[in-house]
Amino acid sequence: MRRAAWRPSLRRLSTLSYRAAAADCVREVPTPLLFVAAPAWSGTPPARELYKPWLEPLATRGFSVMLLDLAPEVPPGTSVLAAMEREMSATLAKPPQGGPPPPFPPALIARGAACVVAEAYASSFPLTALQLVDPPISMQRATQRYPSLFPSALPEFTFEAQFPVRVAWTQPELAWHAEHGVPWYEVHRIEHEREDAAGECLDRYEWASFDEGLDDTIRWLEDEAGFALRLDAPETPTPTRTESVRDETAAPAVPAGTVPAWFSAGHYAFATDGSKKRPIILDERDLQERFIRGSGPGGQAINKLSTNVELVHIPTHTRVTCQHTRSRQQNREIARRLMSQRLEWLIKQSWHPRAGVSVLQARIDKIRQRKYHKRKKQHRSVVT
Length: 384
Prior knowledge:
- The protein is of the alpha/beta class.
- Helix content is 35%, strand content 14%.
- One of its GO terms (molecular function) is translation release factor activity.
- This is Prokaryotic-type class I peptide chain release factors domain-containing protein.
């Protein structure tokens, strides 16, 4: 008797739901958080129940959340892990139920056995960040921790993440390690790479329970993963920087000695000490800050961490970026200094060009004058 060929079902069993940030939240984070669960495979509750202690506080703090429950159909001869990865990518390719498609790759958070699925997905698809909570410490240990899910050991993951990753442990999981003879020096692959990058032994990220790990996760997302606030632009945006300085000989848009409307409406002020580094005191409410991954020389401190600072002045749409140092905090200070000089240049250019010279324009004029004298000297030497 001929066996019928296996055909996939047209009805997708996996679900991807969306939970928006609270309407009255002070801030809104543009990058969504993705929580993964596989209840039919791992026997855990659905994602809405598994991560329930975090959902309401995250919405209050401005985070949008996507909840993914995987239930793939496994063709004969296909590994469950490969089917999970394929099902996850196909489900995330479509907008979630009740929500828009994410503007950026999500930050993936997995717990327990679902961490193996998360690592399989992260090895092939981009993410903003990856956090594993109580994962199998290795694929060899996975057969001991979850014998029904992993009857035989699978190959270890060897991918090198191009985004921030970390592993966090709860006290109940660490107690299971001690009870089953897992030595203290045996760590997860991601923890081992973190120690190699630092050149020393580092403390683990430990929580008393999963419920108490929310604040630590938010701090990590903001400090290491580059999560920043998104402020809504004003209803009547002012002209951009290019439009403001396009014609220097035209009549000034603002009379000399006065300031633009955004300067008067916000908490701005000219430096009273005549500082050239920061001639204008900025209003942080009008700044949109984002941390992005750096590039170029500098090692892992640049290429694996979001130390590059992008600062946008919302009223004028002026944008500056800074990657001068390996420290994000120093880059934030330098970016604000550059923004202060740029805004001072915009204000004085809105007056008549001869009404005043900004710090930035004075620096440009000085460089031009230096190059002019250099060319003049070279011409003299050639003539003689």
